Amino acid sequence: MIPTRFAPVVFGLLLSGLMSLIVSFIATFQAVGLEPGFLGLWMSSWLSSWLVAFPTVLVVAPVVRRIVERNTRRA
């Protein structure tokens, strides 16, 4: 098991991986359609977008959490 102190990093890794996987699929599909070689194009697109998405999530998530805390009320 992964220690709890790494939870924000694991969260960012999984969130950015899944989101970039979905978004890159849609973008690749719209750009080229389901043609031969689609899977390779999609995976290439996904990996390059994940390399940007992961560090971005790690930097942006704490900022977004603070914004949400400031703009919501506790029950």
Relevant terms:
single chain; 75 residues; mainly alpha
Plain-language structure description:
The model has no long low-confidence stretch (mean pLDDT 95). The longest helix is centred in the last third of the chain and has 33 residues, at 38-70. By secondary structure, the chain is mostly helical. Helices cover 79% and strands 0% of the residues. It is elongated, with a radius of gyration of 16 Å.
Q: Quote the distance from N terminus to C terminus.
A: 34 Å
* Element pattern in H and E: HH
Number of strands: 0
**Helical stretch tally:** 2
What are the segments in which pLDDT stays under 50 over at least 5 consecutive residues? none
Category from helices, strands and their pairing: mainly alpha
Strand content: under 5%
Shape: elongated
Short note summarizing the structure:
The chain has 75 residues and is mostly helical.
Task: Furnish the topology, listing elements before pairings.
Elements: H1 7-32, H2 38-70
Helix pairs in contact: 1-2
